């Protein structure tokens, strides 16, 4: 029924476009392009319907993708796979067969001409076409996927060397092949994955921890997993602990897991209430030397702090002072000012800013060579301060009488509209009427 409705909608759209083109005296190139697109979509839908209603011989399906093969090749063990998928496997899990788990001496791929000819003939007889690899739904789960994950999870209960090998492969699989991510949407599976690090993060092999946390990150990309992971207290606790301890890559990837899960509002509350979550992110922002790590931790904190209750927690952990320090050191200025503006929406954030020289700092930023987005955030924060602290409103007024900072931005021909509007609004709040530019002489 859904396919029939989609076809009907496409036909109606195509009919309207063709009528418009035929009957109008002139038509645009875009009209023709839209008509071609609609016709192409209708053709694809027709082919898809035919294909779905046809039973494909099992030997024509790639064991990795579960789809009809377009370029069958023979692997070193004699199994046949579709080239794009086995090439990806070889790149990620070198010298291990996807089906037999044999360690291989080489990974040469030989075209299977016989199977290719048989598939081509079958497609002709059934008047259908095989999908190109780039069009395939890589989220389809096969028995081979399940068996491979089950085998690797078993290795995670064995020696450290076997654990490290299995963790590395799981990390690679969930990164490159989306189908594997869906298999971790089961609490038993995710608990088995994290079992090697569940007792004590501090005593775990650093590389093992790094690969397991990164596997969780890769799996969290799969949307349904966000709900399952967010409701798992044990998983959240391990992720929070990993933000604090481990290699810098493990810490930043744990922070990115928090960012990923924070796409859901419920998860922001759950993670924000987890002991140490916000404190560990703030510490990572402060301690990290690599810009990319600071950015990932700041992104995670920003995502959590879109929930009001978490803003106050971040302020209590000293986030405002650390952010001001990063800006002063010219580190990720745009990003840090966005985070500062986010936290300034909390009453405690405004108070901390006022007590730590926030007003002169922000006014100085406005007079510097800051980007327009940084100026917008500076003005956002000053606007909030004006509405909550009369003493700071006076300080802004006194600064304006000396420097004309806000008036200059409000009248600037190169300021964005947002900058002009915010600057004018602050001028009104501090009781300074923006002076109009002189009228040209007649």
From TrEMBL:
Renumbered ranges of ARM repeats: 276-319
What Pfam families is this protein classified in?
ARM_PUB, U-box
Q: Pathway, per UniProt?
A: Protein modification; protein ubiquitination
Ranges for domain U-box:
55-129
Q: The organism sits in which domain of life?
A: Eukaryota
The Gene Ontology terms for molecular function here are: ubiquitin protein ligase activity
Q: Which SUPFAM superfamilies match?
A: ARM repeat, RING/U-box
- Which is a GO BP term held by this UniProt record? protein ubiquitination
**Keyword Thylakoid: yes or no?**
no
As recorded in UniProt, its EC number(s) are 2.3.2.27
Which reaction is catalysed here? S-ubiquitinyl-[E2 ubiquitin-conjugating enzyme]-L-cysteine + [acceptor protein]-L-lysine = [E2 ubiquitin-conjugating enzyme]-L-cysteine + N(6)-ubiquitinyl-[acceptor protein]-L-lysine
Claim: Transferase is one of the keywords in the record = yes
Alphabetized, the UniProt keywords read: Repeat, Transferase, Ubl conjugation pathway
Q: Which PROSITE patterns match?
A: ARM_REPEAT (PS50176), U_BOX (PS51698)
User: Matching InterPro entries, A to Z?
Assistant: ARM-like (IPR011989), ARM-type_fold (IPR016024), ARM_PUB (IPR058678), Armadillo (IPR000225), RING-Ubox_PUB (IPR045210), Ubox_domain (IPR003613), Znf_RING/FYVE/PHD (IPR013083)
Q: What is this protein called?
A: RING-type E3 ubiquitin transferase
Q: Which species is the source of this protein?
A: Canavalia gladiata (Sword bean)
